[in-house]
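New to this. Comment on this protein:
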Amino acid sequence: MDNRRIEKVMERRERGYIWLEKELRLSLLISAGMILTFFAVMYICDPGFRFFWQFLLAALAADGIWQYVRYRKEYRNYVHIAGYLEQFEDGNYEYRTETEYMRTGIRSQITEQLERMGNAFGTLKSGLIEEKENTKTLVTDISHQLKTPVAALSMCFELMEDARITDAERAEFVARGAGEIKKLKYLTETLTNLSRMEAGMIQIHPGEASLKETLVRAVNGVYLKANMKKIEIEMEDFKDMMLPHDKKWTAEAFANVLDNAVKYSPEGTTVHIRVSPQISYVFVEIEDEGIGIAKE
């Protein structure tokens, strides 16, 4: 069976389906009742009206054709919109019919709205996929980083079991082991936070809060560690402002940056915090005197 014949069969089935629609049958019933009432009044007023039955049948036939054409047009609009929604269900958010942009009316408006909604869904989907890939990459990276302190700890314990090492060497290995344990603690905490975010246990609740208070909270979290290395944390004075943000997790983010600054800076240095209000955002800069990160 060729494509043209298949299309004719489908159109014939579609016409049969439309005639079964409740809305069409109700509309036909109402309009037919009005026509019959009109002709009944005419017959009562003029029983001898010539071609009465011919006009009645013609009016009923014309009404049926008109109701069918009108409803078929509405039906095609529904089919068109359903096609869009089916494309969305299949994940095709860029689907559109070029000819719709040449039309006017409610169908064209709904088509444009559906396209904008599809673009929004597509952007959201791309963002979620990218975020998922970034999380997977980060988890893989942290997993690889865990191998280094574990291997270092294993070596330290093996060397400490050697009876030939001196007390000074044993103390050095203990200190190194303590440093590797701190690295393990930091990496496991990071993995825990990632798993909590994936499970939806960490939720951001932004609200109007003081930026200065959030920064002070972050500084307090690393103050003892900085004091042990004789590192000063200086915050340049700025006019405090109320900004929409989650105090807890924003302070946590600042504290992570400050913790790295203290960890990789030599003793007796200074970590500077500067706040620069811009037109549409606030720029917070944290600068240390540490080893830095290679540009590449």
